[in-house]
Amino acid sequence: MTSTTSPVPPPPPAEITYSGQYSVNPLGEASFRSLCAQLPSVLAHITAMAWAIDRRAVLLLLGCQLATGTAAAVLLTATARAMAPVLGAGAVADRLREALPALALIATASAVARTSVAVARYAERRITPRLTTATDTALVEAVCRVEAAAYAGEGFSDRQEAAEMGVTRTQVMIMDAQRFLSALIKLVTAGIVVSVLHPLMLPLLLLAVAPAGIGAVLTARVDYEIHYANIADRNIRGMTRWWATTPKYGDEVRANGMTDYLLYWYRALSERVDRRTVAAAPRTLRIALLSSLAGGAFLAATWGALAWLAVTGQIAPAIAATAVVAVQTTLAALSQLVIEGAAVFHTSLYLGDMQAFFDDAAARAPQRGRSAVTAPVEEIRLDEVVYRYPGKDRPAVDGVSLTLRRGEILAIVGVNGSGKSTLTRLLTGIYLADKGHVTWNGTDLADADPATVWNCTGLVPQIFAQWPLRARENVTLGQPRSHDDHEVWDAVDAVGMREAIEELPAGLDTLLAREIFGGSELSGGQWQRLACSRALYRRPPLLILDEPTSQMDPHGEHAIFERIKAISADRITIVVTHRLENTKIADHIVVMEQGRLTERGTYDDLVHAGGTFANLLRLSRER
Ligand SMILES: Nc1ncnc2c1ncn2[C@@H]1O[C@H](COP(=O)(O)OP(=O)(O)OP(=O)(O)O)[C@@H](O)[C@H]1O
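^ inputs. structure came back:
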């Protein structure tokens, strides 16, 4: 059979832009002068960052710059001193003997310069990896520590992506700054020597290099503009890449015939990014050509002036020869200065984004009270609680009042999107209520230190992480209570996973990551059992299970609910579920509709009430 339908071309990826209040490109406003004026503060900022990492290496680096500069000055003055006898009259041997001290000085200065370059490289290598690690870790920590509500805030992930670039730039930042400083010192010393030879030479040289400097900064500005325009697409492309290439999602990608589309989308996003970059190429070419033209003209004038001074006898041949060396040195230093200055300036743009993200993340860090919540948690109350996600018209939770007491099991049911998971986030203090209060033992969560609250909670979320760690850490995850595995096995038994874990090649020591050599993979239901055992291992005063058995076989589901019931006396337990039969274990059931609690009662009450619960139960039985 042949297909008669012609293939429909896939739709292009959505045009997503880095938008909203953060869409203003900071470069759009800045003038060339103000950008250059930023350099000292950027250098100070980079030095402060490096200083915090390794003071001795920073001092070593600065010492090396001084040594390089001094060596350059000595080299030039010694060259001038050697030129007179070398170019003078008399026997060659006599002239060389006369020049010998100056030549020895030249050799020593060269050795010092080369040694200090090598030592500076060593110092830079001591700082850079640790600086990158420090900023990278700070970025991860900043993201982990913000109020969870910030994730839904405008442009948060785009600004995070922009900040990642700042972290990447730290890999070259110290080297750029060091080369900039070394060029500056060389320039000052060589410039002094050139000025001493003739006062006209330095201004001419500055003019020769200034166009290249302006060109380099303008090019950096164009590069940053492109980077800025591409942030959103790069962000989406990164996520697409992750979902498309992570083996865990490989089945879904293949069996849904998504490969071609994903590849098409990935390519389309990349091409869009490339198009913006390529479109800027003529601008950068124009900048390069114009700056080279202007620079070349001024350089020709410099050499012309030197020739004129020598020909008209205004400077001696020996001085003229030294001037050639000095001009070359100054020129090289100036070129290095503008190139590295542009690099430092370029880096400063990304560091600015990184710093802005850190400042923003700090502003979004939990600013709650310091009251400590301690176990046992006897009562949790919600009083007219309202929560609305940023950008949404309707609250996800709308005026909910509820009291939970130790020893009770509460079941929350309702259709998709009715606000159940949001309610659990409010109960655990992951989100703070916009209006109303959530109190634990009388303490308002807005006044409580969140760490003390989360010491008392255990959560099995709908979408749980499958950590690429050993089986043991997948149960304990950062909270080992004892040095033997007794309690780990207790938690494993509670979810019926002993047999499965014992069958793994190294038992609890088995790495649960298929893609890494030596790792083993679990089934979906087994992963979910482990997520449950992780929450149970904590023995939390508040246990929340959001669809905890959605991937489990009936046997596993039954065992988990039996266990939840068996351990419920010591804690408050909340179960969110669409399998209404499971709510039989609950002391109370609440039904959510559009963020509100519309029904509440026991299983028997609600079955006979003829409302939403009874309706949903009937539908599930009719299937
Ligand atoms: N991170 C978020 N950002 C913005 N809106 C959200 C976010 N999470 C949920 N919502 C919205 O809040 C409302 C309630 O969502 P919630 O996840 O609490 O529902 P639910 O009852 O748990 O649904 P389900 O049964 O599908 O798990 C929905 O309209 C949803 O679109």
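The chain has a mean pLDDT of 86. Residues 41-51+128-363 form a domain with the ABC transporter transmembrane region fold fold (CATH 1.20.1560.10).
thumbs up if we can close this ticket
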